């Protein structure tokens, strides 16, 4: 099965970059320069960066070149979604009202990446506050199509080969959807596994920090560095073929037939390579996940963004955002609590599934990235997993009828992040060999 | 049973203040002036305020006096724990490294209180980052004793009658403990029920915004305003006698006999007034709650405060804090995940208890506030409920052998905050009549 990834020029994998710097075959400065050139060449069309100060990135690289390489990501350029604070770069959360904002402190995930030796190349464009006003970023495979959102810039710069790693956040579908549309690996860890300090709060029960890479191995490195682990424990070699549950769920008819076909081709390739594959019936209450995720997400965003409604005028905030905030404030508390209770019941039901299933194979999006930049596309297939807080990963899975990327979603049990990543690497290898 | 509350001069209840302003019998300016006078008279000994700008508070009050009273707390002065951001007052998180910090935006809980018409009187002293370096605040009942922590200033200013309401946060015992030591009502809602945006993150799985008042009715008003509810739904009259479970738990021998006696007196008074009271055997795994709460709290604080270790020198941060952060970073991920899994198992076990029990009656602290200001006292009896995310309330329950306040803790089921508050008002009435 062909993936688009191999056909694009790239700065190379994060593992390769880190190794070549560690072994003295490259300098951080040279690697950063290459990323900067690559970014400059694409930006006029891609519009993926919010804040981008080449001299600042080069300074960080030169400072790292004067030190011994000790961190997991020593000298590796990385892009940060602009919902996370940076002390040395502007942070606007995708909103014009924060255009001049300079946070006092790095977000915890940014500090963890810097502590691992990563060079922050810049901040990537995001849908405003992760809500709904799209940014100007275009799809790297076709600029007339959306890259998805809200982590639009972060998915685009990795797909475009400018950087090997970028951070993202997901509350509904903000990592998996742009990863699928841009043809990259996107990983949303278990809810609560990465520190949220300094990352703009939208819905505190759902907001999850994760990121993008061009391979499962690289996204694992990113996860380890953001988790504050001391060293890489990722080893895809110690992995038996997984027991896979095909989970189409109650919304499968929203998906294009070619998307379901792509998923079935992945399942067939895994089966041929020795995986146990069976179809899973979704619990009956899974059909409520859309309404539950929306109730929680809206209720909480109406409270998290209340300060902005007091600090800025309606004209500054804009009608659409203000209407969303007001709608969130109007969600009845009873609906909110019922949604939490329902999600908790469903989580218990699903957890038993994982007793004899290593991962669920699910749809990432209904199809390829839609035409136009006014919408970031449909997140139907992401909302349930966000609601449940389960770790989930988008794996590129060929292309659709318009020659744009398709992806499949691999879902693991709560806190089964490392196992999911190992099994995902197995599936990735099987798919690329197919 | 005598409580200390009635013996102290006070600005009066939040409900009475709000009503008198609404009915034109008082102005916000006059009410705020009274709070300011009361605060100024105590501050030399009490040391409860971090930032306090009388002119700013009076300006807010005058502005409210020119508007129609519409919010729940129109004109009511309130104190904000200095872990929550304020756009018009310095916010230091109790730390010298943030002494000049001026946040760009109010925390969500502050914005909600302002939206309800509250006047922010100032920021109250807190243990540094809510970790362990105490602030200078003294116990309002005896300045040689700790007020408890970390929400020291917020508990003290309410106990001292300077304000009727203040905010607090709890990760371990930071609301219930100071409430018990200062003899006030402290309420920690269900984890996740109040927006955390703009409140300094310490342990994202545990941090909960709540607050203090001199009565259950007032703390209910505070909770409603912070939750972003439109109007007060608190009505203690529609409350049958509760079914109470006495929960001494596996650590009861840490408590002084007089503390257990106080709890038993409350239980007896409730029983006489018609409540069903029975003793509850703690689930066997409850004894792990201390180790689980600590594993999660330390693991997460080591990651949340990582940015500070990069931005400030070891000398600026101090040896003790730095050692705590490093120890948190060294907590094995396996211990962290095991603690989460254990807590989840215990939560399920306890939830079934609430099928035929309205509230648990538990110890708040081992005894009265200890002598000295070097430690904020023992949080043993708070950690389990924080770990489980259950709503919990400290109710003053007379005094101990040193004539300092004692409290009892009332615990409700997840998201049963409103019921817990109604039943707590019932218990409060019974106790004050006894």
TrEMBL record, chains A, B:
Domain Amidase: 31-421
Coiled-coil ranges from the UniProt annotation: none
Keyword field contains Membrane: no
GO molecular function: transferase activity
Record's keyword annotation contains Repressor: no
Pfam families listed in its UniProt record: Amidase
Signal sequence, start to end: none
Taxonomic superkingdom: Bacteria
Keyword entries, A-Z: Transferase
Family classification: Belongs to the amidase family.
Protein name as annotated: Asp-tRNAAsn/Glu-tRNAGln amidotransferase A subunit
Organism: Bosea lathyri
